[in-house]
Design brief:
This protein is of the alpha+beta class. Helices cover about 35% and strands about 15% of the residues. The mean pLDDT is about 90.
Amino acid sequence: MCREHKILLIIDDIQAGCGRTGKFFSFEHANIVPDMVCNSKSLSASGVPFAMVLMRPELDQWKPSQYNGTFRGHALAFVTGAAALRHFWSDDKFERDILRKGRIVEERFQKIAAKARENGFEAHEKGRGLMRGIDVRSGELADAITSRCFEQGLIIETSGHSGQVVKCLCPLTIRDEDLLEALDIIEENAAAVLK
C-alpha cells in the first residue's frame, strides 16, 4: 500500500527492536522492508543514551559534514553498541535464546490467562519473543497485579490503551532462575487478584 501511494514506510522499533521480539528488528518476522527505522533503548547495551535512524541510502539527502552539532553522537554509546552487536549478534545463539525464554513466558502467561478465564475474567496472552503481556481487559486489575508484584520486589509495568496489559519486558540476558522467579511472582499475584 505504501509503495502504491508513494508513502515512506517508517518503522518505530525503539522498544520492540534490538532483539526484544527474538529477531534483531521486530519487523523481520513479517519480512517487511521499511524505508526508515527508528531504533533506541537497549541499542547501546549499557544504558547510555543512544538512538539512531536508519534509512535507505537514496533517502539520505545530507552531504558529508553538512549536518552536525553537539547532539550528534555519543562516543561511549557507539563503542558499547558496536561491542554488543559483535558479542550478541555475531551468530544466531542469542536470538535462539531469546525465543526460548519467550516461549517460557508465553506458556506461563497462557496458563495465568486460562486460570483467570476459569474464574470468569477475560484475559489472554499476547506478544512475541520477550515482549509479552497478559491482557486482563481492565487497567484497575492490571494495576492491582503489578502493585502486588512490586510489594514482592518485582518491578513490572502495564501497557495498552487503558493500561490493561501486564507487560513483560525483562532483560534479554536474564538468567532462567530469575525469569522463573519473576513468573512465579506474577502468577501468584495474578491468581490473588483474578480469583
